[in-house]
TrEMBL record:
<keyword id="KW-0411">Iron-sulfur</keyword>
<dbReference type="GO" id="GO:0046872">
    <property type="term" value="F:metal ion binding"/>
</dbReference>
<dbReference type="Pfam" id="PF13484">
    <property type="entry name" value="Fer4_16"/>
</dbReference>
<dbReference type="InterPro" id="IPR011989">
    <property type="entry name" value="ARM-like"/>
</dbReference>
<keyword id="KW-0963">Cytoplasm</keyword>
<feature type="domain" description="4Fe-4S ferredoxin-type">
    <location>
        <begin position="180"/>
        <end position="209"/>
    </location>
</feature>
<dbReference type="InterPro" id="IPR021133">
    <property type="entry name" value="HEAT_type_2"/>
</dbReference>
<keyword id="KW-0819">tRNA processing</keyword>
<dbReference type="InterPro" id="IPR004155">
    <property type="entry name" value="PBS_lyase_HEAT"/>
</dbReference>
<keyword id="KW-0560">Oxidoreductase</keyword>
<keyword id="KW-0408">Iron</keyword>
<dbReference type="InterPro" id="IPR004453">
    <property type="entry name" value="QueG"/>
</dbReference>
<protein>
    <recommendedName>
        <fullName>4Fe-4S ferredoxin-type domain-containing protein</fullName>
    </recommendedName>
</protein>
<dbReference type="Pfam" id="PF13646">
    <property type="entry name" value="HEAT_2"/>
</dbReference>
<dbReference type="InterPro" id="IPR016024">
    <property type="entry name" value="ARM-type_fold"/>
</dbReference>
<keyword id="KW-0671">Queuosine biosynthesis</keyword>
<dbReference type="InterPro" id="IPR017900">
    <property type="entry name" value="4Fe4S_Fe_S_CS"/>
</dbReference>
Amino acid sequence: MELAEAVRRRAIEIGFDLCGITSALTPTTLPQFHDWLDAGHAGEMGYLERRRDAYDHPERVLPSVRSVIMCGVCYDPERSHPVVENETASPVGRIARYARIAGDYHDSVKKMLRELASVLHELQPGCQSRAVVDTAPLLERDAARQAGLGWFGKNTMLINKGRGSYFFLGGVLTSVELSPDEPHKTDHCGTCTRCLEVCPTDALIEPHQLDARRCISYLTIELRERPIPRELRSGMQDWMFGCDLCQEVCPWNRHAPQPAAEKFQTQWSPSHAAEMLMLSEEEFREQYRKTPLSRPGRVGMARNAAIVLGNSGDAQFVPVLEQATWDSSPLVRGAAIWALGELVDAQSSRRLVELRQTETDSGVVEELDAIFASRI
């Protein structure tokens, strides 16, 4: 059996749903990536700009690389996305599907990739390899398309005809020269624009173009040390972490398969936003330290939860939001103040009136001034 075919078969045996091979090449979308950075669409993800040159070729990740093995593993598509509901049945907190599997997918996928790499070392002693999942300077979707795994959707996701887009990507860079697969050259999106139309913050500024600064996933996960821009808060709807909307409406996800491995099935339900808002640092770490929610951290998630409660239109959350205005983090206090302003008249809240006299953080004062000014 040819070595490349042995690798593909072993990848499926390990648990991957997709596996393809590409030669180590300069990414075809490198010019678009540079244009995207230059336009400022990466927002505050400064690490992308700092290492922009590292994306030029896979050899920047592994100097001896000759081939890149790209693999995909499906996660739970959940046809009906569960939400925590309050007594009036309005949704009060959604978490993106990928984040609710057991543990952090980076760890699970990398373990599988390392097992695949070990096969190469058995068959080609002395070879070099490196397993990468998301964090290395490799344009993974570009490499996956080159390896024949799918095409770029108008929502910028990689889409596979049989698997949709609900899958994790990872790769093994190796010094072994393997027979490559044919690149995927056909776009199967046609005239469909559902993903562009459904985005509540207009983050998809045109087909295949994402302005991350407007994307709910970026706002709730990556923008974790600043307030979410006021003009985008209502567009967050009930999303506390991430967003699945542009994938939910994609026709290619109608028949997305269930993951075979239990570890990639949904393992936990989202917390109520009011509960998330009130968690202490210790409680948050205990519940979420081994999940993707640890990236925005307690403060980021509490900020997001406050905005979700403000978007609920339900005044029953006023007491918990008023309590959150005592939070040690100005980021959380500011979000809670904005949410209160969405639910009640500022002058009718004794707590808001009191805060206007005592708050010293300039950012929080700005939030207070904004809601009082809006009632004049």
